[in-house]
C-alpha cells in the first residue's frame, strides 16, 4: 500500500512541477516561479525513488514496466541536475509528465515480483546500462526540442510554444552533444562490462540486445566523430541522435516487450 501512496504523491508532484514550468505557454502571468516547479518535481523524484525501493526491497527488478519506471526516474533526476548548471527547465514539460505516467503504470500494472539475486559485477553492469539509457534518453528529448526550435526559427515564431521555456538554440545543441558524449562513454562501459561479466549470452536472450546496442554505439560514435571532425550540427545531428536512441530502445525495451508481454516469458 505504501508504494502505491508514494507513487500517487510522485505523480501529483511531477504534474504540478510540469504545470508550473509550463506557465509561460498559457499566456498568463506566472503564479509560481520556475524554481518552485523544479522543487515540486524534485519531491516527485524523491517519492518515485522511495516507491521503487520499497516495492522491490532495494534489489534489481528489470521487468518491462519497472525498467521503464527506473529509467524515467533517472531521466527526471538528471533533468533536475542539469538545471543546476543550465536553464533548461523546459525539459520538465516533457520529462515530468512522462515520469508520472510510468511510475503509475509500474505500480498498477506490473505484477509484484522478487528482485533478481545478482553478483556485484552484474549489478554494476545493470546500473551503468540504466544510467547510459537515461543520459541518452535525455539527449534524445533535447534533440526533439532542438528540432522544434529550428522549425520555429525558420517560421519566425520565436515567441510561441516550447521556445518560450527553452534556452537559446546554441545552448540546447551544446548540451545535447555533452549528454551524447557522456552517454556514449557510459554505453561503452556497458558493453565492456557485459563482455566481461555476462555469461550464457545465448541462453539469456541477450544476443539481439548486444547487437542492437553495438549498432547504437556505432551511430553515436559516428555522430561524435562527425561533430569533432566536420562540425556536424542541426538536423543531421538530431537525426543521428534519434536513430541511435531508437535502436537502443528497440534492443532493450522492444525485446522485453515481446518476451514478457507478448510471449509471456521471463527475460
UniProtKB/TrEMBL annotation:
The keyword Membrane applies. Residues 58-261 form the Cytochrome c assembly protein domain. The chain crosses the membrane at residues 62-81, 88-110, 122-147, 175-198, 210-228, 240-259. Pfam families: Cytochrom_C_asm. It comes from the Bacteria. InterPro entries: Cyt_c_assembly (IPR002541), YpjD/HemX (IPR052372). Keywords: Membrane, Transmembrane, Transmembrane helix. This is Cytochrome c biogenesis protein CcsA. It comes from Tahibacter amnicola. The lineage of its organism: Bacteria, Pseudomonadati, Pseudomonadota, Gammaproteobacteria, Lysobacterales.
Amino acid at each position: 500500500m505504501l508504494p502505491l501512496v508514494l507513487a500517487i504523491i510522485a505523480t501529483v508532484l511531477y504534474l504540478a512541477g510540469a504545470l508550473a514550468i509550463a506557465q509561460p505557454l498559457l499566456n498568463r502571468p506566472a503564479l509560481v516561479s520556475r524554481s518552485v516547479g523544479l522543487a515540486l518535481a524534485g519531491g516527485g523524484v524523491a517519492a518515485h525513488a522511495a516507491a521503487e525501493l520499497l516495492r522491490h526491497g532495494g534489489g534489481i527488478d528489470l521487468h518491462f514496466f519497472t525498467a521503464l519506471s527506473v529509467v524515467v526516474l533517472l531521466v527526471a533526476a538528471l533533468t533536475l541536475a542539469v538545471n543546476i548548471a543550465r536553464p533548461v527547465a523546459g525539459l520538465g514539460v516533457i520529462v515530468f509528465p512522462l515520469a508520472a505516467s510510468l511510475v503509475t503504470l509500474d505500480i498498477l500494472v506490473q505484477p509484484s515480483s522478487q528482485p533478481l539475486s545478482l553478483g556485484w559485477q552484474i549489478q554494476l553492469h545493470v546500473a551503468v546500462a540504466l544510467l547510459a539509457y537515461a543520459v541518452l534518453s535525455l539527449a534524445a528529448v533535447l534533440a526533439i526540442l532542438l528540432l522544434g526550435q529550428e522549425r520555429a526559427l525558420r517560421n519566425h515564431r520565436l515567441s510561441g510554444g516550447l521556445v518560450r521555456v527553452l534556452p537559446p538554440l546554441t545552448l540546447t545543441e551544446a548540451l545535447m552533444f555533452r549528454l551524447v558524449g557522456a552517454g556514449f562513454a557510459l554505453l561503452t562501459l556497458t558493453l565492456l562490462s557485459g563482455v566481461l561479466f555476462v555469461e550464457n549470452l545465448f541462453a539469456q536472450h541477450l544476443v539481439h540486445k548486444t547487437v542492437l546496442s553495438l549498432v547504437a554505439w556505432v551511430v553515436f560514435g559516428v555522430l561524435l566523430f562527425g561533430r569533432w571532425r566536420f562540425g556536424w550540427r542541426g538536423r543531421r545531428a538530431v537525426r543521428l541522435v534519434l536513430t541511435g536512441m531508437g535502436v537502443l530502445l528497440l534492443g532493450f525495451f522492444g525485446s522485453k516487450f515481446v518476451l514478457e508481454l507478448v510471449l509471456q516469458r521471463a527475460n
